[in-house]
Amino acid sequence: MALPTIFNNIFAPIIIIICVEFFRYVFINANKDSKEFLSLGVILLILFELFTSVKSFDITDAATVFEVTTASILPIIFKNLVLSYLTYHVGYRPTLIYRLVMDVYPFVLPYIPDLGDYITSMLGICMPILLFIFASRIIGSYYNLEEKVYYKKGIELADIPIIVFIVILVGLISGFFPVFILGVGSNSMMPKINKGDAVIVHKVNDPKDLEIGDVIVYLAPEKKVIHRLVDIKSRDGVTYYYTKGDANNGRDDIELQFQNILGVVDFRIPYIAYPSVWLTEYFETH
Q: How would you list the strands of the sheet with 198-203, edge to edge?
């Protein structure tokens, strides 16, 4: 992605973030003695982000309501509560850094792998909670005049796996790694890959990386498909790729080009994506 394009993509979001965090800082500092006004300010900030971030959706569709609530509404509420808490006790710097890291990167990266609604939602909710846990520990130690004790025990051994897990999730979602993870929602690749499994996929940048027999992920209209590459043909100077599900009788009725192919499956993780699949099916049938 060219540098001017990146600048154009991030300029408006950065300006909005700076203005919102400046408003948060000024409002909270002006009303520290009034819990009612503080609560009102936080509610206004939450409503502002909801109105600017959440698009219109069909409230009669239970699956859509659930998806929007878990993927957008709850993360926005948790994030604003924690950022307001930080602003009240610390100032605007940590909130500004957090938002510039977490809210701006999607505008910089040309492609963000889809980790699935379940894990993405958990990340959006868990990140603010973890931030609150670490921040409250620091702030509590400061107010109790235990800075030295905190700096010795601030990050405990038990915290390290959580931090590593979050870093890996952020890397997978942001596209920083050359691999991404994808949940499987059908049995078309049985017995090699089952419904509810997750697959680890490495991105391909060269047609030479593809061979007949590879299990690939390709982008079909409105969904990603995990099927086996069964044939490669060239016609009029264009290379076409043909796929088939291992459990299907015939090959897919689609001619793929290289730009439609997202990556090659390296291995599967059994059942890890089943909560997302189960929830999706539940709300589609109710």
A: 179-183, 198-203, 261-269, 215-220, 223-235, 238-244
State phi, psi for 200 to the nearest 5 degrees: -95, 125
Residues 265, 276: Cα–Cα separation, whole Å: 20
The residue among 147, 157, 183 whose CA lies nearest residue 271 is 183
- Distance of alpha carbon 237 from alpha carbon 242, whole angstroms: 16
Q: Where residue 258 falls among pLDDT bands split at 50, 70, 90?
A: very high
Q: Angle at the Cα of 84 (from 81 to 89), degrees rounded to 5?
A: 130
Query: Per-residue pLDDT averaged across 57-73, rounded?
Result: 69
pTM score, whole prediction: 0.50
Return the pLDDT at 18.
Answer: 84
pLDDT for 285 equals 60
Q: Domains in the chain, please, with CATH?
A: 3-174 (no CATH), 180-268 (2.10.109.10)
Say which amino acid occupies 30: A
Whether the CB-CB separation of 123 and 276 falls below 8 Å is answered with: no
User: Which structure tokens are listed for 166?
Assistant: 């979050």
CB 92 within 8 A of CB 25: yes
